[in-house]
Design a protein that fits this description.
Shape: globular
Number of helices: 8
Number of strands: 0
Strand content: under 5%
Structural class: mainly alpha
Oligomer: single chain
């Protein structure tokens, strides 16, 4: 598994074709997504400690964020497969997409660096350029993985990615609205709003 992760981090295109056809890698891909999401959320939520949320707030934000990140990943895989099959009649399955994009997801681990926010929120500014560069590298890895998985030309791959991102954005906005309404309703029911 480490060879494949190193391959993903060094943009070796062959690694994505390899995991696409390796059905035994599906659990490893989910593990990569879950661990990476957890570490990324641990870093991203670290400012909770120094801004009044405390350690409990940090851990709750990390766990909830991880659950949402893994769910968003699964939704992204499903939507990409659906769009690609609908528009270009690809034969890529959900499991193949999970394996390929799960490996590319490893780039999100760099968000863990934001854990320096525990020491001081100002230190997050120091690691922001690194996380920005890693985010762009992760986007490139996502594109390479998507192309390898779908077997389409670049233009078709980009069309699938853009349509899938718009669809995911709409779904996430609706989910956020529903969660916001539920949170607001729970706060009102608990009497915390006056």
């Amino acid at each position: 598994m480490m060879d494949r992760i190193i391959g993903a981090l060094t943009f070796k295109q062959g690694v994505y074709s390899e995991v696409k056809s390796d059905t035994s890698f599906t659990q490893n891909a989910w593990l990569i997504v879950a661990v990476t999401a957890f570490l990324a959320q641990l870093g991203s939520s670290a400012s909770q400690v120094s801004t009044g949320g405390g350690i409990v707030g940090w851990l709750v934000a990390t766990i909830v964020g991880t659950i949402f990140a893994v769910g968003a990943f699964a939704l992204a895989c499903y939507v990409v497969v659906f769009v690609a099959k609908t528009l270009f009649q690809t034969t890529t399955t959900f499991e193949e997409m999970v394996r390929v994009l799960g490996l590319a997801y490893i780039w999100n681990i760099v968000s863990f660096l934001a854990i320096v926010g525990i020491i001081s929120p100002a230190l997050v500014c120091a690691v922001s350029p690194i996380t920005l560069i890693a985010g762009l590298a992760g986007l490139a890895a996502f594109a390479i993985a998507l192309k390898a998985s779908l077997g389409l030309e670049w233009v078709q791959t980009i069309v699938v990615a853009i349509i899938a991102m718009v669809a995911i954005f709409v779904v996430m906005m609706i989910a956020g609205l529903i969660l916001g309404i539920l949170g607001f309703g729970a706060a009102a029911a608990a009497g915390t709003l006056r």
